[in-house]
Design brief:
The chain has 11 helices and 11 strands. It is an alpha/beta fold. The chain starts with 7 loop residues before the first helix and ends with a strand.
Length: about 290
């Protein structure tokens, strides 16, 4: 019945009450902001100014459905079908990883390092296209290429690029047996490959384990650096002289990755910490 449909303020309270035993208060507030932005196009200010506005029946039932999915630990980004990355709203689905804040720091490093020249860049394992798209938008004089082994990921990344007006050449390719990107010559190669070891699974959040693509996250303990090794071998041939390789890394593997890159005759190795003080990014030059 219509008189059971709450006003905006009461709907936000319902979200909080339903989820308070499952998530921290700050995270619930984040969910609430995203829900009202998606369903009503409300900013935080709009929410405060309109909190006595009655919801439509449709919006109320959508909120209840979203709450049910959050109670099952489905990530809010998959529920809403979108995620923010480096100031851009991108489409996401369970076919791709949800873009992370730590990866924004890696991208900023690449942008700062690239300068204003005309460069050729390659993003390996592009997923949603988040890295490639931000690079293309922020380095308009450069040519950006991106590859992923998943055809669904490449299709989704392509849609994101078109929506953002980003000129990117996408390929479906396997870095262990590259075909399409083999002949390219690049100034910068960047990758956020799978790097969480199987033994680290108990420390991974439940919503990640239940819903995010396993192949994009985990590596066997005995082959923890398999992607780094394959990408380094490829980059040694595909980078121009003086070209740079950027990685997001497992915080516990920085020394091993340094040794691996030295083996592939990379030098000028630099490792950086993320906002949480963890060693999560490396750069090396050919």
């Amino acid at each position: 019945m219509d008189h059971d449909i709450p006003v905006v303020y009461d709907a936000a309270k319902m979200i909080r009450n339903e989820l308070q035993h499952l998530y921290p208060a700050r995270e619930i507030q984040g969910f609430t902001d995203l829900i009202f932005e998606k369903l009503l196009n409300f900013s935080r200010t709009d929410f405060l100014l309109n909190n006595n506005t009655k919801l439509s029946k449709s919006a109320f039932f959508q909120i209840k459905e979203i709450i049910d999915q959050l109670r099952n630990f489905k990530p809010i980004q998959y529920i809403l079908g979108e995620a923010w990355f480096y100031g851009l709203k991108l489409e996401v689905s369970p076919d791709v990883l949800i873009p992370r804040q730590e990866t924004e720091e890696l991208v900023k490093w690449v942008i700062d390092d690239a300068g204003t020249g005309s460069l050729s860049l390659l993003d390996i394992g592009t997923g949603s296209g988040c890295i490639a798209i931000v690079l293309a938008v922020n380095l308009p004089h450069s040519k950006v290429h991106a590859t992923d082994i998943s055809e669904k990921a490449v299709q989704l990344a392509g849609r994101n690029a078109r929506v953002k007006g980003a000129d990117i050449e996408f390929f479906v390719d396997d870095i262990f047996a590259p075909v399409h990107v083999k002949s390219g010559k690049y100034d910068i190669i960047v990758s956020n490959p799978p790097y969480v070891t199987e033994s680290e699974k108990p420390f991974v959040a439940r919503n990640v384990l239940l819903y995010e693509p396993v192949a994009a996250l985990f590596v066997p303990d005995g082959q923890a650096l398999r992607y780094y090794e394959a990408i380094a071998a490829f980059a040694r041939e595909a980078l121009n002289p003086g070209g740079r390789l950027f990685f997001e890394i497992n915080e516990n593997k920085s020394d091993e990755i340094r040794q691996l890159l030295m083996r592939f005759i990379f030098s000028d190795f630099e490792v950086r910490k993320d906002i949480n003080g963890k060693f999560r990014m490396v750069r090396a030059a050919l």
